[in-house]
């Protein structure tokens, strides 16, 4: 693990540092039972270290992991699993989401208004690599931004501990939807924030180029019917090439 830790503490400009680490990352959409078991072990290790295990923590996998509107990703650094996130695509017709289980009134208000949502959940990072200067939180939430673009969603949600809300307000331009509220499921306070995805997209990608991507990468991440009939084993990020294309001058026709 030492070579991984060294790569996360490079002394350079932060956006470039993130791109440098992203160059060594692969994403995997988790479909295989063995990979799910690895995800479960990482979740337990991460949640136990942070003291946020649900009160019913007997199994770190649940039915939502296998829902057809949920996408579980593993982040692999130098071919080692280092973090994971589950991304829900929530629509008025398909309302299953992690945030909805905690704040049903707020979620139903969005959905009754006809909005579509991206709801990340089960974010877990190897605590051995989650130092103050770690790039992993930024790289782990990358599929959330990609999902918002791919599905053209209205909002990205963040149901989080209140101590983390300043991070999401600052970096993801999030608004508070539900103030800190005690949750019986976890036994501590959570708050719900939401980012207006279409309004923030350009400035978010300008600030953090790692969140850019080419359409074919987003299809690999979220298309459940690829030509081969099987999901890709690993997905290489396309942030650099997407940024290079964006910088090319528009030629007159």
UniProtKB/TrEMBL annotation:
SUPFAM superfamilies with a match to the protein in the record: Acyl-CoA N-acyltransferases (Nat)
Highest taxon of the lineage: Bacteria
One Pfam family matching this protein: FeeM
Residue stretches making up the N-acyl amino acid synthase FeeM catalytic core domain: 38-194
Protein name: N-acyl amino acid synthase FeeM catalytic core domain-containing protein
